[in-house]
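Example 3.2
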Amino acid sequence: MTTGVNTWNASPFPAQSSATVPVNLISVSQATSHAVKVLPFFYSDLTTVERARTFWEAFEANTEGLPDTSRLLVFQQKLKGREAERWWNNSHIKTFKTLKVRFHNHFLSRTTDEL
């Protein structure tokens, strides 16, 4: 580890490497931002099973590798429509696995008449 000099009191201090945790946080933040930009909105009031499936496949592919909290944040930002917002607000989803099961049960396993 190299040392630098503190300009205020000229005492040496350890220099920090440029590849520390903040770089990883920035890359997660950039990946999350990219996913939000790329993904379409999910309009629950106008959806069909095919549209819900298309949205889910795009969502899953574009958020692969992100932490669960980031995936849930992206998902929440892409929900539009009274039914989806009510469903999200009444659900206590904390993990991606739970989200996957509940989204499938609520939007993908229903018939066209139920949607």
